[in-house]
Amino acid sequence: MRRRFVTIWFPFLVTDWMARQKPALKDAPLILYAPERGRMVIKAASKAAHSKGIFPGMVVADCRAIFPDITVVEYPTGKAEELLEALALWCMRFTPAAAIDLPDGIVLDCSGCTHLWQGDAPYVAHILGRLGNFGYHVRAAMADTVAAAWAVSRYGRNQTIVLPGEQLSALLDLPAAALRLENAVTEKLEKLGLNTIGQFAHLPRTALRKRFGVTLLQRLDQVSGFEMELVQPVQPPKEYFERLTCTEPICTAKGIEIGLGRLLELLCNRLAAEGKGLRSATFRCHRVDGDVQEVSVGTNLPSRNAAHLMKLFELKTGQFQPDLGFELFELEANAVESIAFDQTAIWVETDTADTAAVAELLDKIISKRGTNVIHRYLPAEHYWPERSYQLAASIHARKEIEWRTDQPRPIHLLPIPHVIDVTVPLPDYPPMLFFYKGQRHQIKKADGPERVEQEWWMQQGEFRDYYCVEDEEGKRYWLFRSGHVDGGRSRWYIHGFFA
Amino acid sequence: MKYTELQVTSNFTFLRGGSHPEELVQQAAELGYDAIAIADRNTLAGVVRAHAAGRIHSLRVIIGCRLELLDGSPLIAYPTDLSAYARLSTLLSEGNLRAEKGSCHLYKADIYKYSQGMRFVAIPPDSLNASFEFDASFHVILQEYRQQLGKNLYLAANRSYLANDAKRMFRLAQLSEELVIPLVATNDVHYHNPARRELQDILTCIREKCTIQKAGFRLHQNAERYLKPAEEMQRLFAQYPQAIERAQELADACQFSLDELKYQYPEEITTDGRTPQEELVHLTWKGANERFNGHIPESVRKTIEMELEFMERKNYASYFLTVYDYVREANERKILCQGRGSAANSVVCYCLGITSVDPSKFKLLFARFMSDARNEPPDIDVDFEHERREEIMQYIYNKYGRDRAGIVATVTQVHWKGAIRDVGKAMGLSTDAIGVLSATRYELTEEWYEGKTATSEGFDANDPHLRKVLEITNQYIGFPRQLGQHTGGFVITQGKLTELCPVLNARMANRTNIEWNKDDIETLGFLKVDVLALGMLTCIRKAFDLAEQHYGLNFTLANIPQDDPKVYDMISHADTIGVFQIESRAQMSMLPRLKPRCFYDLVIEVAIVRPGPIQGDMVHPYLRRREGKDPVEYPSEELKEILGRTLGVPLFQEQAMEIAIVAAGFTPAEADGLRRSMATFKAKGKVSDWEKKLIEGMVGNGYEEDFARRVFRQLEGFGAYGFPESHAASFALLVYISSWIKCYYPDIFAAALLNSQPMGFYQPAQLVRDAREHGVEIRPVDVNHSDWDNTLEEKTVNFCALRLGFRQVKGFKEDDAELLLSGRNPRYTSIQMIFEAGVSILALERLADADAFRSIGLDRRQALWDVSALQSAPAGMFSNQQDETEAQQVQLPQMELSQHIFQDYAATSLSLKAHPVSLVRQQLAMFGVTPATSLKELRDGMQIKVAGLVLVRQRPGTASGILFITLEDETGVANLVVFSKLFEQYRKEILQAKLLMVEGKVQIEGEVIHVVVQRCMNMSGLFDKIPASAKAGLELADRNGQPTNPGSKSVNPKESVKKVLPKGRNFH
Is B1036 close to A192, i.e. CB distance below 8 A? Predict the structure, then answer.
């Protein structure tokens, strides 16, 4: 069978995508930049920018000097690759073998596919039409070789189909750059006046090889098909989804449990084989009358422990109403993460196992009592006491700094400081006694002041002078005065308790 | 009870200290302190400023330095006397010279070695450990310090309001008692008042490269590290009053003052046991006899005697001898040099060969220097050939030794751009926002701050975060950022320089410099000599060499025939491309109006096109008076003497300052302060006090306010680019000499200029073209004829032909040129031969690009074809054999003239074949475009079109947004004037076009022709359409409305043709 290839070119891939996100950008001159050796260099320019004479490689400052109101956005690194991957997957409706052609194209091996679209031309037209409707500027060409299709899609006149066997002749009028050569080679060819492929394709091979290296000959061979070019098709992502059909409707809790258990086993085995674990999963039951019921569970750590997951589901499966019975069970993992295996030393006690156990316990408590009942605190790098701690976001969160020990800090910090009355000698000695919740505390020992200034970039206001004090019962408190003594505006507060 | 703060960090501890030394001193004075110590980290860079401020506020500044050790905890050292200071300076120099620029490596052992006569304060760690004790290691090191430093050691105690202050004080007191080290109270001052804490926090962020939000514990917890009143310190140390007493005791013991530093001239400068004055007298008369061939005119004799007497009285002999010494060395090495400055324009300097300006043309300058009431040291700048200046610098280092000669520092200050970038980053602004803010400073006016206007980018004055950013930025501007080296100022001493001031490694190899800048040096009365570099001197040297080689003439700066009317004719016609100083567009349009006829006219010409006279609006009045349109009159009789030589219009910096003295009643010191503040504080807007004083003073003395304002604006203009008459005079000599060479030997001039590139305003293409217009034949680069430099060949008609050298070929290396030249024996007949001489293929390709194989009979295309075949040829073994695979001849497409021209430009930035614009002349003619050379035949006010390559776009700060463009076509250049509004409209065309066509009104004023632009059009497209046949296929993708390939780099056919043409240079 004759091989046929389509190459698709997205000349404005990333800017077109941005215009899809923000329709206002459509038809607007838009440039995307990235820093390069200290300068902001244009990585991509939209069609409108392009027609103003702005090309990738220019410096943003130069363009701004010329077009002060042009839209300038930072280039999303890796976006082009991501988009091409998605587009190639989408193209799998046209052929099983769709490959990414960096930096801005896709190659389809469409050998034996086009008859489904009534021939080559309608096939390509269909692809162009669909992609165009997405808002992409797109060009494509079909030929017997990838190289020829590539050249024609980039440099050809309106031609899209190169007839079988005519790939070389179709390229004769195209510039040397259409052969995907290195810049230096293209420039040299131009300098020699060999501007089109036709001007040098017939020259003696030895003469060409000596001057331009083997790549040029290789490229020419790839065009004519003497040399094969490999296409690496994209692979569709896997879905973590299992289903179980029942021969008879299931009505009992035990039956549901068995079904769920079997699905969990299947899924967990698969996860184990791939080194993954799930963070959330949905169990879906289809009733004979078409009703669908589902329950979801989430975990604190990626898990593939079927028994543990079973327990989590068990807390919820009670709500199912089988009525006439379920005929189909589905289990889908909505979020899957890799499980990192820490290599554990044999004689060292590690906390990995503990973490897993704690996580499973938390999973259970949370599925019973809701997510807001347990908190963990970590130190935060702020002097201002109210900001000196933060809530841990996940079980993985570790403290980045140690709790402060160079300055005394109370074990129990009041969320909001409480106003107190004090008797205090001037100017900045500790109080002699204070009243808190109607109780009088005679101070026996004290230390301070420790002055904490406002974090001026967030908040304005008075500094605080903190004192550690001990009353006659030996209880210790953290008190502070807000602001300077003088001016009479200063007030006293209690902010915490030491052990 | 008195208190003296001993632990003060100024902003010369970069990115730590939050206040200038001057601010700290002033604050201390206001708080009633008698003395204050400045102790920056491993540096004395800020002490002179503090010292100078101390003089003003009558406050004693104690010199200190916080020594950060690599193997011990820090110590602050305070020298008690001059010899201890010398040891401290030596210690720091040693540490500096061991390390790279910017760091200083010190060890305990160094301290012990140099500790004599110094008092030390040990700095304890900030915090206590879990059992509320100092780390044991501190105890150990402190014990060692006590053993080594004995009773000179103290221990710092401070209360910065942290929770464990009391415990820490207790531990310190324990240590003090146990080890018998007295406690001294300090406040670890980082800023002069608590408001600076915000800036200090930001400095911490800049230092730690983080944002304020992320800085966390790297900041200080509170704002207590400010200079506190003595009573407050006493209250804080109420439990330890002896610590306050000890601090005062230490301060009293350190009586050393920078005023004790004595500068001594080196002694090597005299011979035969003469005193410096005797030597100077001897050399002067010896030189005078040579200069005047034994017939010294009586008037000169008298002047010399007077000058020598003055120099003896002022004890300046050594200074002149120092300068003479390296000028003599330069002359011996045949390096051209030329002195400038008021002291340089003396007959003595003329006799010593320091300057070549004939003193008979200048009676006034030195006399003015002598009569100057200011007692400032002479200042002579000597310019050397820029390519060989380093030789003189190394000569100075070698002669006096690195421990006795050093380059003066320049303290790089933070400017708006750097400040907003650093502060913005630390405050968490995005890079974009910072970029825009940085560019829109001029929009942040007072009205904006008051919320009345918005900026074009929409910055809101009510945004507190933004206001904070700007507030801190404004505080940060002017902070020292790093110590650089001055462009060429040397301090040379008799004793060790390292004992006067710490010496450090400069960024450049083989250079060392001191920590103080020129103002510091001046404060202390040190003398500096300037060794500067000047490109034009290199060019003149090369011209002199060529003259000797080809015309057998032996020129020096002093023997070029003077006052030649032909030279002044040429200058008056603005035929001055390439000439020193007067080649810019602005200068060239001034020349036909000024019509210089004598040397002093050139002095004026050099000085007049400068920001000072332009901002002061003095240019036009001067021209009108000179042309006789306005009468010459003087604002007052007393100014007649000052302004007499410039027709009553102040043009020079000295004149403006003298006006301030005479007319506004300034003291000379105040006038000098005014000039300085213009340079330093202009950025900070602190000049308004001076403005008021000057204008009120002048109006009070009966001058018109308008005149006063103009004088002030002129002073403002001089601030940044001071250009005194004495410098203009020295430059004028070089103007004259370069003009003379250009006038009589345009061949030599062109070759010398091309060989000294990059230099000046013009590119090789214009220089070559100018030479051709003066009748010089220019020959192309060729492998059989060219040298590395541009050379002169046999005489053609009037002049020698100029052969372009390999240095004009882009990417061709001097090494390859050497190989090529050594193998050229006598000529090459094939490319193979050059290859075998060892020239690389890459280099051969460059030569092919430059079309340099014509003498072998190959054009560039064929040459490139042949060169690229060398790639795989077996080297050496079968030399000179014809490769058999080449048997089949390949016919390459014929190149068209236009393609050759573009490739010439690509390879050498110029083409001798034709001017690119001539290729499209026909098309341009259809648009009705006038060739540039025909403009002068038009009538003033006519509507015309011109087109050409954009050579230069210039938007001087003094011209209120007007843009000057110079276009070039094959007939000449056209000068365009674009008003700012029009520029906004045609911004794209003006900035993008290689070939620009404009329509406008021609303005003819004598010989000065401008086109005032009304419309612009980018005609670069015309170039794409020329060689239609050769570019078939290149534009295909473009033609059917589809995009050309934006993704891959090479395929921008239009660009690739056009990018070779010069982009046009931008000047500001």
Answer: no
